[in-house]
Amino acid sequence: MEKGLSFYGATAAQNRDNAGETLLIDGVDISRLRLVKDEHPEEENFFHSIGGLTVAKKIHNETECENERQLRVWRSVGVPLIYVEGCLANAEDHPNAKAAAALIRFSQRPDIPLEIGLSIDGGIVEKQNEQGQPDEKGSVLARTVALAASLTVKPCNPKCKLFLMNDLTKSDLAAQPPQRYWQALKKSQAKHSFNEVTDQDFALYLKMTKLKKSLVDYMGGFTSVRCKKCGDGVRFFKSSNDLPNGCPRCKTHFSMTEIWQALNK
User: Fewer CB atoms inside 10 A, N or C side of the chain?
Assistant: First the structure.
């Protein structure tokens, strides 16, 4: 059976949103957070319930990330958040789920300036003012109950982004490595002896040995990976703090799992 469109992202984050409110992540009850809806529906019915969540977790810092997907979301958001993973019911012929899945895929085109985000549905138990005192008109949502993650084209919190489980694909583009590696390669070819190699050249050489594919692969025009978000093609590298692991054009970070899956499609 075909699987529905799978996604992950932050459905809530602890920063001031476009409405001027701040949601305290520790004050959110996520024990009933299982449903996926579309565009904050005013009525509760099956048409607006378009999928389910398989994971709902609070993340306060980078050390709480358990995998590359969570790390990608944390690095995108940078403040305490509610991380979710979910699947739409589009494969079950749910009309609204099929519409949502189609729009999400459509938004991945590089020529479409549309970004689908996430929001949170539920109830407010207590509001506070900036001084931490209970206040019905306060801008701090201190205690809340989360019931659903909503897909929306107008997220109130711009940090709450949605990512597809695999938004990379194989590409036949001849990708180019970072310019500094080409420069290091040219320098090394021009040296007549090891004594002419500088410390900086040697450091770049060591980095070059960590490449997932060698520079020979680049020159041979081997298959690269294409970012579906902006359409660019690029070779990716092993996980390391000092090596690129994202699209050079749109700066989207990709996990090594996603890169490996794309290369082996």
Answer: N
